[in-house]
Amino acid sequence: MTFLKRVGMQACVAGLALAVLPQMPATAQTSAPAAAVTASPDEARGIARDAFLYAYPMLFNYKTLYQQAVDPTSKSYVGGFGKFRNYSRPYGPENKEIVTPNNDTPYSWAWLDLRREPWVLTVPAVPNERYYVFQWIDLFTYNFAYVGSRTTGNGAGHYLFAGPNWHGDTPKGIDKVFRSETDLILTLGRTALNGASDVKNVQAIQKQYKLTPLSAFEHTAAPPPAAKLSFPKWDEAKATSVDFIAYLNFLLQFTQPPAPSERELMGRFAKIGIAPGAPFDPAALPADTRAALEAGVADGKAALADAEKRTTSSFDLFGSRADLKDDYTTRAVAAAMGIYGNTKEEAVYVGTRVNAEHQQLIGSQPYVLHFDKKDLPPAKFFWSMTLYDLPARHLVANPIHRYSVGDRTQGLKYGADGSLDIYVQNKAPGANEMSNWLPAPVGAYDLVMRIYGPDQTVLDGSWTFPTLQKL
């Protein structure tokens, strides 16, 4: 799971807040009239609540898009659309711009604009012992495609990604075609890193990841350019107010035609001015209508907060539209708690912040985490457990520079019976336990385990994360 600070923060990349205009043009050639608000105030409030929950993940997806692909002054700018930005250096306690950072699989980020033509992802042959994956995410935040060790294998390949309005046949040389519901899409690549000494090997693989327009791949003439876009600047305060409708309208133009399951929903949303590419100016609304919309947004925020409190597992938060079954509250919770999480068949995230007595874990109290041989994390690829301080959720500085342990940790010692004990505490344990020490801060912390390629026992709940026992 990739965790985001929802106010002024981005997972794996730094955040940026800029001003936004009340009315936001969709594209250079679009001059759609403002959609009329036809709902009564009472009806508008209920629609606004549901529309805010629907829009929430799209809004924070757009935040990432704007910072990574549009705003060259952002620290997280990848260079625009159609370009990879690869990360390969392990994170340390000094990296404060992200939360719950992942040192297992450095990222390769890229955004594609599919309006003009499809794009081709080219991957090299990756050594069989090294896990890698490209997760593909549409504007709705659905995981609509996977390329990598689990789904397509570690061999070299060419994979085509097409938008909703492309209807061509599979081109020669393409191993598989993936179709997106939206014209703007994101890929989040991950390549397994086996410690700092492995960085150069990861970099060598990342340099071979390529994105190519279909015409360039086929050495043919490119289609006419798509209309130039005028992207609304990101302003988090406005995006989480009644102005969310303006952002949503901008994004909806890249989701045409709408999914069949959403046609009736879009008709309902239209009653409060939601329409693809339509301007929206809340200042032009009657006072009672605007007040109703504002109340609806507040209702949506309250519903989301309540749903978050009741969510205890990431297993069913992420996936395709078919996986989530158009459950927009769950989709919003996923974005709020950890946008861009993997589909559970790819990876799951489990852990705890409490001990066997349901007390908050603190480093001044030594603990042992015991796994019987039969209960070791069942991972097809690998597993890793990382410790983060609370409430900041950063890595913890320590004398041995160890921030996680897992089945790839060098020097980890197993018992004669194949069991494994991990010692979690602030002060160094005895000499016999040092090899299995996961250093903790003096105060509160959280443990997050990532299981890549979980087996069915993880997915059905028969395998569970063990409790920490006091020493």
UniProtKB/TrEMBL annotation:
InterPro entries reported in the protein's UniProt record: DUF1214 (IPR010621), DUF1214_C_sf (IPR037049), DUF1254 (IPR010679), DUF1254_sf (IPR037050)
Pfam families linked to this entry: DUF1214 (PF06742), DUF1254 (PF06863)
Protein name in UniProt: DUF1254 domain-containing protein
Species whose genome carries this gene: Paraburkholderia dipogonis
Source species taxonomy: Bacteria, Pseudomonadati, Pseudomonadota, Betaproteobacteria, Burkholderiales
Signal peptide residue numbers: 1-28
Residue ranges constituting the DUF1214 domain according to the UniProt record: 346-456
Keywords, comma-separated and alphabetical: Signal
Domain DUF1254 residues, every copy: 82-213
